[in-house]
Amino acid sequence: MLKESVWYVLLGVALLAGCTASPMPLAENTSVAVKVPAQVGVRPYYLVDDLDAGALKDKLAQCAAGPFYRSNFVISHRGAPLLFPEHTKEGYLAGARMGAGTLECDVTFTKDKALVCRHSQCDLANTTDILLHDDIAKQCRQPFSPANAATGADASVQCCTSDITLAQFKQLKGKMDGFNPKASTPAEYLNGTPHWRSDLYAQTGTLMTLDESIALFKSLGVKQTPELKAPMVAMPFAGMTQQQYAQKLIDSYRAAGISADEVLAQSFSLADVRYWIEHTPAFGKQAIFLDEGENSANFDPMQPSSWKWSMAQLKQQGVTTIAPAIWMLLTLDANGEIVPSRYALEAKRAGLRIIAWSFERSGPLANGGGWYYQSINAAIHKDGDMLKVLDVLAKQVGVSAIFSDWPGSVTYYANCMGL
């Protein structure tokens, strides 16, 4: 009982510290050597409470009083989309306040070839209020079609950034990712936030261009990781080739005076990464190859013969950093314990830097964690188990950073473990 009381006293101290700490500075060029206070919030405490008794829980509980600071181990995935609309100013600010040392803008383009922050070129109907703007929605690639109860057909629509101009894009407001497949009207279609998320912080949702994100991230003093999203239109688009698209992303950072060392460009396309390595080496040397192994036939993280490229081949092509999904890096041993996969071990052996994605993406883990935990579902039973996963990724796999939908949880862990 005494131990539990101490734990709650420490929790209270930590929460009060978050209220009394100085606001996070917005000064430019914040050095990584400067400790920037982070506000981790209550969620990491909830996760620690939910951990099984043991050494990990004891270690994390001892850190309850903080203090907590920004960490380069933490990458803000799309902002803070567990509770904030993704790729919005509000979400980015939340991610930075929770201690992310790196913020992400997924980059795609508009009809007039302006670069903007969206996870997918054609997700506007799910992540913005475009369907409430009749004059803009009429330009959508696939207009809204209501659900049909008689045939069982779901509602459908597809709206792409390349369907509209930058000026039209800036009229939209970000919303929580989701849709209502049984909608009979456009307004009903937008009402589809997953039950385990919330619309509490979705009342504003300021969309961002790449240039605006660069300026914001610079003001926050964080590193920047833009992902060049795969076009969902034929390339060249309005005369812009894929290579020009990749170059345009880099040129945006050069124009803003951002040092290449502060930019971690990423792509699921090895061709994009190789372009940066060959044509913009200052940026290419730390570019991230996002590996989506399941796209290879019969991919198995335990069977190198099923991988499209060996780790040695990637290294030979100049790749220095690889970023797979969490499940690709983990497996279960004979005792059902979570351990590094063959994929993870081979990446380490090749000397590749490893970044994992995406923590806090799956929602409640009571049923095994779903896609992101598919290789270890049998060991995942509750939310606290994600801290076990994080611990293995950090200590056994040796990831250098992890993308998170709620950076505060990883910031707590990183500070506690000295990462």
Automatic annotation (TrEMBL):
GP-PDE domain span: 72-391
Listed EC numbers: 3.1.4.46
Catalyzed reactions: a sn-glycero-3-phosphodiester + H2O = an alcohol + sn-glycerol 3-phosphate + H(+)
Signal peptide: none
InterPro entries the UniProt entry points to: GP_PDE_dom, PLC-like_Pdiesterase_TIM-brl
CDD domains per the UniProt record, alphabetical: GDPD_EcGlpQ_like_1
GO biological process: one example: lipid metabolic process
Keyword entries, A-Z: Glycerol metabolism, Hydrolase, Signal
Gene Ontology MF annotations: glycerophosphodiester phosphodiesterase activity
Top-rank EC class of the record's enzyme: hydrolase
Family note: Belongs to the glycerophosphoryl diester phosphodiesterase family.
Name by which UniProt lists this protein: glycerophosphodiester phosphodiesterase
Organism the protein comes from: Shewanella mangrovi
